[in-house]
Structures are given as C-alpha cells and as structure tokens.
Amino acid sequence: MPVTLCEAHELINGAHQRARELGTHITVAIVDEGGHLQALGRMDGAPPLSAEIAEHKAASVALIRRDGTALRQMQEAWPAFFSQIDRAAGRPILAGAGSMLIRRADTVLGAIAVSGGLPQQDDECAEAGLAGLAAGN
C-alpha cells in the first residue's frame, strides 16, 4: 500500500518546518512506489524549477529503489547506463540530494524528494519529513 494522502501531507509539512528553521525555501514531492506524483508542496519563495526537479528526483528513487546518495554513486560508476536509462523509464532520471525512499518495515511505499536548498539542506529537510512520519506511526 502506498503512502496515504494524509501521510504525504505530513511528510511535506515536516520538511517545510525544517526548511523554515534553516531559513530556506523548498519544494517537496511525494510519489508512490511506482514513481507517480501523489503530493507536491512548494513553499512561497522556492525556485520555480524546484517543483519539476523534486518530482523527478522522487520518481527516480522510487523506480530504481535506491536513495539519492546511492543513486548518485551508481550514476558515477555507470555513466553509460545512466545516459540511457531515462529512455527506458520514460522520464528523466535525476540522482540528487534530498531524495529518499519511504518505507514501512521492508516495504517501499514511495519516495520523498526535496529541491530548492543547498544539497545538505535538501537532505535535512527530507530526513525531517521522514522522521515526522515515523513518529506518527
């Protein structure tokens, strides 16, 4: 079962709260286990392109079943593979900070991705979103 809409909003709210604490403006995308957009929250002042970037990062993580850091390592190790995988996936594959799988036990429910801050800020905001969801369960 994918993340519920209510849970998706909890993830977004947790990430946005951390962004406010860090003094940055972000967009958060939540996708289901198949990489389909479930919810998107763009803070006032977040870069316009951050919405598309967050969605593509989240979908990439969900489809390949690797967090952004592991996906980036795969991209560096196999550049020829990554230069073609977006054609197989039918969408851009983006590996980047702030993109993580959403899991319940060993089951992948979807992914969260953050865009708009510095890489470390994107990571912190995604982790905050996940921590808020875990605390609520």
The number of distinct β-strands equals: 4
Share of helical residues: 40-55%
User: What sort of overall outline do the alpha carbons produce when their principal axes are compared?
Assistant: globular
CATH architecture: 2-Layer Sandwich
Helix and strand string, N-terminal first? HEEHHHHEEH
**CATH fold label:** Beta-Lactamase
> Strand order within the widest sheet?
2-1-4-3
Radius of gyration: 14 Å
Kindly give the count of domains: 1
**The top level CATH class name:** Alpha Beta
Give the N-terminus to C-terminus distance in angstroms: 15 Å
Keywords:
137 residues, alpha+beta, 6 helices, globular
What would your notes on this structure say?
This protein is of the alpha+beta class and 137 residues long. 51% of the residues lie in helices and 20% in strands. A four-stranded antiparallel sheet has the order 2-1-4-3. α1 (5-22) crosses α6.
Give a quick precis of the structure:
By secondary structure, the chain is an alpha+beta fold. The protein has helices spanning 5-22, 50-64, 68-77, 79-82, 85-89, 119-136, and strands spanning 27-32, 37-42, 99-104, 107-115. The chain is built from 6 helices and 4 strands.
